[in-house]
Amino acid sequence: MTPLMKFLCAAVVIALLMPPPGAMAADVNPGVESPPLDPAAGLESIHVPDGYVVELMAAEPLVMDPVAFDWDAQGRLWVVEMADYPSGNGASGGRVRLLEDRDGDGRYDHSTLFAKGLNFPNGILTWRDGVIVTAAPDILFLRDKDGDGVADEREVLLSGLSQGNQQLRANGLRWGLDNWVYVAAGGHHGKHAMDTKVRSTRNKSEVAVGSRDFRFQPDSGVVEAQSGPTQFGRNRDDWGRWFGTQNSRPLWHYVLPDHYLRRNPHLAAPDGRVQLPGQINPPVYPASKPQKRFHSFKNSGHYTSACSGMIYRDRILFAEGQLNGFACEPFHNLVQRIELQPEGVTFSGRRGGKKEEPDFFASSDRWCRPVMVRTGPDGCLWVADMYRYMIEHPQWLPDHGKKELLPFYRHGDDRGRIYRVRRVSRNPRTIPRLGKLDTETLAAELHSSNGWVRDKVQQIMFWRADRSAVPLMKALAEGAKAPQTRLHALCTLEGLDSLKEDLLAKALADDHPGVRENALRMAESHASP
Q1: Peptide bond preceding 61: is omega within 30 degrees of 0, i.e. cis?
Q2: Is-contact 349 340, C-beta < 8 A?
Q3: 158 in Cβ contact with 150 (< 8 Å)
Q4: Which of 42, 412, 473, 527 stands the most exposed, by the fewest C-beta atoms within 10 Å?
Q5: Is 521 helix (H, G, I), strand (E, B) or coil?
Q6: Residue 89, C-beta contacts closer than 8 angstroms, at least 6 positions apart
Q7: Long-range CB contacts (within 8 A, 24+) of 251-255
Q8: Neighbour count for residue 483 (Cβ, 10 Å)
Q9: Residue 525 gets which letter from DSSP?
């Protein structure tokens, strides 16, 4: 072999060993199909439809392993990190991290480790001066009492939640119009963890919720079972209609609430859910290459890891009046848009977008793992990317799959990204800082078209229990132009125990069916015995 041929052969070998552009060379492993991408290259790998742009809002080392997030009344972003997934190596390793935008450029630049040592945490709700976190077997209230940015008080609000597989644990924590907090049970079928009994530390009660979802009042500790189970992500629309999801079913509508069905224990009630879209394991349209499968081979290109099914609650991303749902599918590295159409008392649904194009948010990077999607206070669509080489829990793998993937179970546990999708033609709103607003200014924020903002205003009014808010809410309930504003005003009055029957009677005759529907619900508590 001539010197030139030896040089060319050596060059080819070096080229084959080199990682692709954007890859992190330190993580190249002979057994890894593709190396991880740095945050900039990862961003470039994401496809969104024409007219939209995706932006990186936070990445490692500011955030790692994000699976759930929420904003507080100061506009800060709180993130739950399930760093101990899929195995905690004998110690609880989950975290809560607080992200702040201190230089005012719209992106997070400062990170504080608020809490650590949590047991596979997977849900968060900002509450009063702290946060509520699901970390089975407990639901915790964490807060910082001395102002150093680190949680120094950890109260168990509820306990007794099923532990088992980390993909099948209670999660969610979503605010209801009825002033309760809702929790997804985490089960993947109706018989999962049927013996679950939730114990409340604040009112010393025990409620047999079984495999159902449930709601609770954090201050009083009251617990009540709901329809379920939802596996990961129980969410609602502007009118209090709840939606759930399960790995093979991206979105369903809970049409028949459990608390109505259980009034007659002798009735074999039908399934109270409507699937959106209708079939099991509907197709998805990834931008990434198919990954090697160890089972369910016919489901390649179909939902098998659906999670975080939700309804977009604002107007700035889509056409006026268009109702859109979204569901994450982390195994296929995407988030799918689901167009919803009213159909009687429920909906029909179909995949949104052009058939020849990838789904709404689709990455060609195998490591991109969208696990939660939410409507942000700015009107954008926010996505938590856990960023792992392997997302499937080993429990679901056959023995040869467990053996082959064993070296990679935790690859990526030092990475994570949070993105937002916005329209090119519209600037995102500024994330509001509601916490220090006086009552009158806060009440005006109920005119917002953003669902998160209206929910947070209602929560703050509930926390403050300020009687000066009552006439303001009454005026909005009677005279606000937007029906969503009228509804939140009514619900705030209900939370303040100040909803009078004359106002309720007017709401029962409201022009909008969503207001009338909720007025009927509220009227139940005013009925004569």
Answers
A1: yes
A2: yes
A3: no
A4: 527
A5: helix
A6: none
A7: 251/275, 251/276, 251/277, 251/306, 251/309, 251/325, 251/327, 251/338, 251/349, 252/276, 252/309, 253/346, 253/347, 254/227, 255/345, 255/346
A8: 17
A9: G
C-alpha–C-alpha distance, residues 182 and 179, integer Å: 10
Q: Within 10 A of 273 (CB to CB), how many other CB atoms are there?
A: 20
Q: Edge-to-edge strand order for the sheet containing 77-81?
A: 66-71, 77-81, 94-100, 110-118
pTM, two decimal places: 0.93
Q: Please choose, from the candidates 288, 176, 202, 190, the residue with its C-alpha nearest in 3D space to the C-alpha of residue 230.
A: 190
Q: Note if the bond before 257 is cis, omega within 30 degrees.
A: no
Give the three-state DSSP class for 349. Answer: strand
Residue type, 125: L
Read off φ and ψ for residue 23, nearest 5 degrees.
-80, 155
Question: Do residues 358 and 350 make contact, with C-beta atoms less than 8 angstroms apart?
Answer: no
Q: What is the pLDDT along the chain (529 residues), one digit of tens a residue?
A: 554 444 444 443 333 334 455 665 444 455 788 999 999 999 999 999 999 999 999 999 999 999 999 999 999 999 999 999 997 565 689 999 999 999 988 899 999 999 999 999 999 999 999 999 999 999 999 999 999 999 999 999 999 999 988 899 999 999 999 999 999 999 999 899 999 999 999 999 999 999 999 999 999 999 999 999 999 999 999 999 999 999 999 999 999 988 888 888 888 888 889 999 989 999 999 999 998 888 788 889 999 999 999 999 999 999 888 999 999 999 999 999 999 999 999 999 999 999 889 999 999 999 999 999 999 999 999 999 999 999 988 887 888 888 888 888 899 999 999 999 999 999 999 999 999 999 999 999 999 999 999 999 999 999 999 999 999 999 999 999 999 999 999 999 999 999 999 999 999 999 999 999 999 999 998 876 6
Amino acid at 362: A
DSSP 396: G
Beta bridge partners of 23: 37
- DSSP designation for 51: T
Termini Cα distance of the chain? 99
Nearest 5°: CA angle at 395, between 408 and 358?
65
Q: Tell me how far CA of residue 374 lies from CA of 189, 259, 326, 467, in angstroms.
A: 24, 27, 9, 32
| Amino acid at site 189 | H
